[in-house]
Amino acid sequence: MNFLSEEKKAKLSEVLFYVALTIELGIMLLEKSVIHMYSYQSYVYRLTFLMTLIAVLLLKHDKKEWIIIGAVCAFTFISYRISGKNDLLRYAVFMMAARDIDIKKAMKYILYVSAAGYFLIAFLSVMGKLGVTAQPPHDYGRGVVEMRYELGFGHPNTFYGSVYAFVLLWMWIYGEAATLREWLLVFTLNFMSCVISASRTGMLISFMTFGIGFLARYCKKIGESKIVYILTALVTPVFCVAFSVWSAIVSKVPRYEFEHKHYKFIEWIDSKLNNRIHDLYRETEKHAGSIWTWKLFSDGSSEETFDMGWVRIFYWYGIIPAIVIAALIVLIIYICYKKKDIWTLVIILSLSVYTIVEATFVSEYIGRLFILPVIGAYLGEFVSRKKDGECLKS
To answer: How much is the pTM?
Structure first.
């Protein structure tokens, strides 16, 4: 497309990115509801992949960037050919297409499109037009009979996961300038969603997130403290990965093997996680999720799903891709430190901890992982501009 000027190429690249983003958000919203389009999803994914690939090719790159783009595409393509899952390839190209976008504008777009979609799903459910409002009273493995609301999202955890994503988006966009009243309003929305969906995980992690976010809002010096970024790098992904690997190992310990020297400790933790650890081994005949099913690159038979998100990364994509993902998160934390970007740091910390026990953000749906445009822009800036001793700046 040499007939186009660099300015027109950049504009066309941005348009293609937003069209692909809109389609991905639409697929995500349909999947969140009880409406599914499994027969056509693969074709739509090919379309959005092609759009983002063209968007990447339209951007101006130097030799170093082309080498990195080629290496990333080769690695994710090899992963796709071995595992049968093209998720990492699609994610990588999507992030590369986001290099030059206005991330504030993109995140606001994601927030408002997602919020409108979530509201419509809930409204149609309450009106009796889509899905169900609540599940019948039942014992969900917690020893008590309870009613959990899903508001048309197909499952209470899916409903809360959507509210959680909205809250994190709001925090990233408006948290720094929001008033105390606005913080309390969003906190109340989150708290009520936890209560009606009976999401204990959501309650604990969102309380942690709001606590850290509130400190970041009113104690500005926290965002400038190096120790905050170091601690986050230790928790995310070091603790998250370590705990997940440990869970995959001990999942094989029989439920009633009291002779095991650490059995009571394992059983206590597993009870707090609604048997997520033991289910890695005993829920399927293949013992999907236990560490004995992990491979360097997962093969096409690794299709089973379970709740522990970091374990799903290792199982679905393989040990090598999982390690690369963990390393990229550490790199993003480093970039956040250079830019003194406390809000992206808070989101990464919250998502990483949440993903230990919930796999909501480990999926084929690009629209779920709303932070991708920020990561893509930051990595693009890191690769293309950090040279000759130049430091990243906000």
So the answer is: 0.92
